[in-house]
UniProtKB/TrEMBL annotation:
Keywords: Cytoplasm, Isomerase, Rotamase. GO terms for molecular function: peptidyl-prolyl cis-trans isomerase activity. It comes from Achromobacter pestifer. It is found in: Cytoplasm. Belongs to the PpiC/parvulin rotamase family. PANTHER family: PEPTIDYL-PROLYL CIS-TRANS ISOMERASE, RHODANESE-LIKE_PPIC DOMAIN-CONTAINING PROTEIN 12, CHLOROPLASTIC. This is Peptidyl-prolyl cis-trans isomerase C. Transmembrane segments: none annotated. PPIases accelerate the folding of proteins. It prefers amino acid residues with hydrophobic side chains like leucine and phenylalanine in the P1 position of the peptides substrates. The keyword Cytoplasm applies. Residues 1-90 form the PpiC domain. GO terms for cellular component: cytoplasm.
Length: 93
């Protein structure tokens, strides 16, 4: 069964997600940006969500995590919780 590890940043607006994505693309540290901006409790751990399988996260999130290239920041991804920037840190198919 497929497994992935990912980290994310959760914010309330698409504009804020895009602003943070630009900052990361320009060299800001993902974990630090998560700690300072993400509304998810995972922000304390740099946005790290650990390892999980398909179907354990909301559909929109799952789709990105199990298809996006490892190590590239994806998003903003809209879910019922807000807007996410997602980075897949590892995946085993």
């Amino acid at each position: 069964m497929a497994q992935a590890s990912a980290r994310h940043i959760l914010v309330s607006t698409e504009a804020k997600a895009n602003e943070l994505k630009t900052a990361i693309a320009n060299g800001a540290d993902f974990a630090q940006v998560a700690k300072e901006n993400s509304s998810c409790p995972s922000s304390r751990d740099g946005g790290n969500l650990g390892t999980f399988g398909p179907g354990q996260m909301v559909k929109e999130f799952d789709t990105v995590v199990f298809s996006a290239p490892v190590g590239e920041v994806q998003g903003p991804v809209k879910t019922q919780f807000g807007y996410h920037l997602v980075e897949v840190t590892s995946r085993k198919d």
